[in-house]
Design a protein that fits this description.
heterodimer; A: 225 residues; alpha/beta; Rossmann fold; Arc Repressor Mutant, subunit A; 2 domains; 5-stranded parallel sheet; 4-stranded antiparallel sheet; 14 strands; globular; B: 416 residues; alpha+beta; 11 strands
């Protein structure tokens, strides 16, 4: 996947680039509107991560440029402005998702992959990861052709893990993904463990490999083997 | 006491005092004038008597003196100064005693000294004085009534602009943009006052707006650095060569960051609600929303082994679903956070209100400032904005939220 990151904050830009650069992804970045438009006029990307507040203008201009040139890049807005108007405006002129800062990189990756998959799937609704096959449309999962029954949280968790395979995911990020960031978990993430345990058991019971690994009490990792 | 009443009272007391003193002076003056008039008449008459005696060498007959009574008394006195005095006048026709005025002087006839006394009736003068006193009294009462009425109606009218201004100040809301409606004041003082108040109000409003903009901007500006911290941490934990102790530190930074970001979002939301920027009102099915909420919090509830009971009736309200969601989040979150292990939560919803009851500390919270910003219990690790937010949302929709403590239950009641 070829990704363009348009973000003026250096620290954030670099981290996003690093996080997305692995497993065959090509990740380019720029820090202002002019460069972004210039890059877009030469290259084609699969996905654009777009900050709205740029030093030389509004990120919406990129969306308008893409719309004008009938481009089909997936665009995810990453903005500090959590306003409904901005969200509606962005989504109306062609953005595919809107993520408010601050966010976890894992969350961003999961969104990118979900949106990209939706756009690029062209009717194919099957996500295949080794022996695990997920029917995104019917929300069913089979491991080695054995169907396994997952709860909603376990299913969401599995998708999140596969999108971030090989990465360590903080419990914090996982909890926010599953319960939404409006719900204050009071820094009590013990119950995540129960869901992880169940998911892991269901996959192993169906003959799958043991992908889930706990990392020093900070989070979990879905091994990309 | 109202200013007009106070003014009225003082005014009337002073007027009464001045009138009484004035009436007294008036009475004495008239009395004095009437008396000197009588004395003048009497002195004329006594001189006539003396002349008569000198001319006719005999005492005058009674008839010569009209109504006046003249008495001659033989006396041994060689010398007697003329004296005037009050006495009784006997009206022989009507046979009654009247107040009288008399003069006494020495008359000598054929070497014999007589004391001549002439008495006149004072009744007519008395009558005039009484009449004048009556008129004065009538005037006094009249003046008092007129003063009283004038003060009451004219003064009230005069103070009308003041009460109007007062009403405007009382209904002044700092976040409300409706300016003062100033009436056209003819009185300089009131015109000046209303101008001063108006400029003060607009100054306060603009200061408040600036402050809100600062909060808004500061909160927004904080979000990007927070995003940087979060992404750095997310990157940091990918290095599995880090010693495990560091992970604990990172966990704490994660917790602090998420708390900061939550605080920030709440502040932004509070500003938005206060600016009434959220107006996506729709029909919200509160009952199913509460059910959904308990489902969402299921893990947290069971982690503390809390028994959660619902007693819900259908209730639709017109509100922003987003805000209601946040309100329920906060109420629910508080009910769990401040609960004890194996505690209880009872949520009831009916036509008139929504109630959250939960067990917790065995003593009531501080009633007064529970809905204030940054007030929180000592045990609480929240930021202290939750209830302020709930109370603001209630205020927005003009609901009443109250807290009470009864039978070991902390009760938050919202009345629609």
């Amino acid at each position: 996947m070829k990704i363009l990151v348009v973000e003026d904050e250096r620290g954030l830009r670099e981290n996003i680039t690093t996080y997305f650069s692995e497993e065959g992804n090509i990740c380019e970045s720029c820090c202002d509107l002019a460069t972004a438009i210039a890059k877009l006029s030469i290259y084609h990307y699969d996905c654009i991560l777009l900050d709205i507040g740029l030093p030389d203008g509004d990120g919406f201009a990129v969306l308008e440029y893409l719309k004008l040139n009938r481009r089909d890049e997936v665009v995810i807005i990453i903005s500090a402005r959590n306003s409904l108007d901005d969200k509606i405006r962005g989504l109306n002129i062609g953005a595919d998702d809107y993520l408010t800062k601050p966010f976890h990189l894992a969350e961003l990756k999961a969104r990118v992959i979900a949106v990209y998959r939706r756009k690029a799937a062209n009717g194919k609704n099957l996500l295949v990861f080794n022996e695990i096959i997920i029917d995104l449309h019917g929300r069913t999962v089979t491991v080695n052709d054995t169907p396994i029954v997952l709860t909603r949280k376990e299913y969401d968790m599995l998708l999140y893990f596969i999108a971030n395979k090989g990465k360590v995911i903080a419990k914090n990020a996982l909890a926010e993904h599953l319960w939404g960031d409006e719900i204050d978990m009071h820094n009590n993430f013990d119950f995540i463990y129960t869901h992880i345990k169940n998911l892991r058991k269901k996959i192993i019971d169906a003959g799958g490999k043991d992908y889930l690994e706990s990392v020093y009490g900070i989070g979990y990792k879905f091994k990309a083997i | 006491m109202k200013l007009a009443a106070q003014y009225n009272r003082t005014n009337i007391f002073i007027t009464i005092g001045v009138l009484i003193v004035g009436a007294a002076i008036y009475f004495f003056a008239i009395n004095y004038i009437a008396r000197s008039q009588l004395d003048d008449d009497l002195s004329e008459e006594i001189e006539e008597v003396q002349d008569y005696v000198v001319l006719n060498h005999q005492l005058p007959k009674q008839v010569d003196f009209d109504e006046d009574q003249t008495v001659f008394i033989k006396t041994d006195l060689k010398k007697l100064d003329r004296v005037y005095f009050d006495t009784t006048y006997t009206n022989q026709k009507e046979n009654k005693a009247e107040p009288g005025r008399a003069v006494a002087a020495l008359v000598s006839l054929h070497g014999v000294n007589y004391k001549a006394v002439i008495i006149v009736s004072r009744e007519s003068t008395e009558y005039i004085i009484q009449f004048i006193a009556l008129i004065t009294l009538g005037l006094m009462v009249g003046v008092l009534i007129v003063l009283f009425l004038a003060n009451r109606y004219f003064l009230n009218d005069l103070w009308k602009p003041f009460y109007y201004l007062l009403h405007q100040i009382k209904s002044f809301s700092i976040s409300d943009d409706g300016g003062f409606k100033l009436s056209d004041n003819k009185i300089d003082e009131f015109a000046e006052l209303s101008l001063a108040i108006e400029s003060m109000a607009s100054r306060v409003r603009s200061d408040y707006q600036n402050l809100k903009h600062i909060t808004d901007n500061a909160s927004h500006e904080m979000l990007t650095p927070l995003a940087v911290i979060t992404s750095k941490l997310d990157t940091l934990i990918q290095y599995q060569t880090l010693p495990p102790e560091l992970y604990e530190q990172i966990n704490d930074i994660y917790a602090a960051t998420s708390k900061l970001s939550r605080l920030n979002q709440t502040l932004l939301l509070l500003t938005k609600i206060e600016n009434q920027l959220i107006d996506d009102n729709e029909q919200v099915d509160l009952c199913s929303l509460v059910r959904e909420k308990t489902r969402q919090f299921q893990e947290l509830i069971s982690a503390k082994h809390i028994q959660c009971a619902e007693n819900l009736q259908e209730k639709n309200i017109l509100a922003s679903k987003y805000l209601i969601d946040i309100m329920l989040n906060n109420l629910m979150s508080n009910a769990i956070r401040h609960n004890i292990d194996d505690g209880h939560i009872i949520i009831s919803l009916n036509e008139t209100g929504l109630t959250f009851k939960n067990t917790g500390l065995n003593k009531p919270l501080d009633y007064d400032d529970i809905f204030e910003r940054f007030k929180k219990g000592k045990r609480s690790d929240g930021v202290g904005l939750g209830l302020a937010l709930v109370s603001n949302i209630c205020q927005l929709y003009q609901w009443k939220i109250t807290y009470s403590y009864k039978d070991q239950y902390h009760i938050f009641q919202i009345n629609f």
